[in-house]
Amino acid sequence: MTPVDRSELPGMEFDWLAADEAGHLAQMLSSGVGRVPEVALSSEETLFALHLFLDELPLTEPLSIPEGNFQALLAQPQRRGLFVYDSATETEEGRTGEYVLIAAPAQPLMLDRIPAEFRGVVARLPGLFLNSPRLKVDGV
Predict the structure, then answer these.
(1) CB 36 within 8 A of CB 14
(2) Are 103 and 63 in contact (CB under 8 A)?
(3) Mean pLDDT per segment of 10 residues, for the chain of length 140 residues?
(4) What distance in Å separates the CA atoms of residue 25 and residue 18, rounded to the nearest whole number?
């Protein structure tokens, strides 16, 4: 397993996966400024395979936000049951570590629905995505 090179993260879009306390899954979009937990950086190969697996899942619902804008492009994983969070804007002090909910599924995809070999790169976050329009994430 090859860890993700942390020095490449600033300025680079890096998508990672998280699960809340109930096991709901979210795709987190770093936008080159969001913090990323260590576990999500543990294996490039596993994270890539997980993204391929998720991309092959059937579309199960329409977008929960209006189509035709940039956020709708980012929110496509929601159509497969994932919550989608985008990194909050960087401040003068540096990366905020905050992510903002941009789309929520009606039927969330659960952590136990993905193969066990992928679960090691999924960060566990406290709380419930359903109650979290903003998330504070620790990491690099």
Answers:
(1) yes
(2) yes
(3) 71 86 96 84 92 96 90 92 87 64 96 97 96 84
(4) 6
